[in-house]
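Bumping my old thread because nobody answered last time. Still need a sequence for this structure:
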């Protein structure tokens, strides 16, 4: 996904569920771009885009950890790497057992733990 498309996605998401998370997403995007530009290790354009989209699951409304699954599912067909980042960004050590917040995953949608472990295993790089 390109920058302009990611911005449109965030703008649409902001219309669906307005809130401070939109500004947070822009801040994360700019920080990621700045950091990657300084360390010269990753693509800073991609860092901006992934930062912008990391919380896109919040488009579905207020939630706790459900937003990582919603973002992953929403972006899976649009940008697979961005989808993985949606799912993994709440687990910096790649261990979902470290999560301390409210677990509000929809139980009807399967086992979150087994699905999350499966996906996180794929994105450890
Ligand atoms: Fe988040």
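Sorry it took so long. Here it is:
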């Amino acid at each position: 996904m390109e920058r302009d498309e990611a911005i449109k996605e965030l703008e649409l998401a902001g219309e669906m569920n307005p809130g401070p998370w939109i500004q947070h997403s822009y801040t994360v995007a700019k920080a990621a771009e700045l950091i990657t530009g300084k360390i010269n290790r990753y693509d800073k354009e991609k860092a901006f885009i992934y930062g912008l989209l990391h919380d896109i699951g919040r488009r579905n409304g207020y939630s706790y950890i459900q937003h990582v699954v919603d973002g992953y599912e929403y972006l899976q067909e649009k940008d697979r790497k961005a989808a993985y980042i949606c799912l993994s960004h709440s687990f910096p050590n790649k261990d979902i057992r470290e999560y301390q917040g409210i677990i509000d995953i929809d139980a009807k949608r399967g086992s979150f733990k087994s699905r999350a472990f499966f996906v996180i295993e794929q994105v450890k790089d």
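Residues 55, 67, 89-90 surround fe (ii) ion (CB under 6 Å). Let me know if any region looks off to you.
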